[in-house]
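Forum > Structural Biology > Help requests

Title: Can anyone predict the 3D structure of Ornithine cyclodeaminase?

Hi all, first post here. I have the sequence for Ornithine cyclodeaminase but no way to get a structure on my laptop. I'd be grateful if someone could post the structure tokens.
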Amino acid sequence: MAEAIAAVKSAYVQLSAGRVLAPLRTALDVSPADVTLVMPFYEAPVNGAGGALGLKLVSVFESNVPRGLPLIHSVVLAVDTASGAPLALIEGATLTAIRTGAASGAATDALARPDAAVAAIFGSGAQARRQLEAVCTVRPIERVYVYSLGGAEAFAAEMAGVGPIPADVRVAASPREAVGQADVICTATTARTPVFDDADLRPGVHINAIGVFTPDAREIPGATVRRARVVVDSVAAALAEAGDLLIPLSAGEITRDHFSTELGQVLAGERPGRAGAEQITLFKSVGVAAQDAAAARVILSNGPALGLGTVVEL
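Reply #1:
Sure, ran it for you. Structure tokens for Ornithine cyclodeaminase below:
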């Protein structure tokens, strides 16, 4: 995860500097609850090294959940930047969870208080697991609360004491219990309305909102958005998809300038991050293909050395 966070940090800096081509994704609405997203990416090599070219296809089918099927199915096709030839077909759901976790890890490292010790996780799926791992990679988390409409007990039992995660992982009985003592909050749900009350937040909390990515859905209360220092992965993507920001914007609670700072700009030192110990910070990510480019590059670098994957002769 530390390596993934470093790669995603670099990708965000490159994206904000205009050195990554990552067009807004195309959304194919299969049904009111199901969508397939097409996300191309290109990062040019530097001095003949690095770089990434490819495409991610990801399906988010909420109708799968009651059928006992995964919410997300995805593949990433990596392409040679020199010849355009296919290099690898990568299982994308795991990649997505890792790179999204790494994004929150990067944001937490840039925006959360250095002494943050308590984390709250909303959701209990694959995304929530990697969110927790990433936060615990960059901050000395001592206690974790998890709140979910289902699966919280299994999440707590599985994640406690794994890697950088503390042994003290507790199931919260309510959203208030989850956020009441939290220094870092991650929301990784499919909720369409806020998952906690603004009044329950502690001063100085940092929030990673990564679960919903449509203009009409949100996990974060408008009051929290209004008083937070908001940083986004991509301003263009946020304007197209971030309901957490677009809903309060349309209601007149905030202005367009309220979310004009990208994480890449903060990481590069071009824009300020946290202004004080009691300031609330909010990272809103809808997911951008620059993250997938970074993850694909790391996988292509590490996979063969680890003996992973199957070679297919073309």
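The chain has ten helices and 13 strands. The chain has two domains: 2-95+290-306, 102-288.
Shout if anything looks off.
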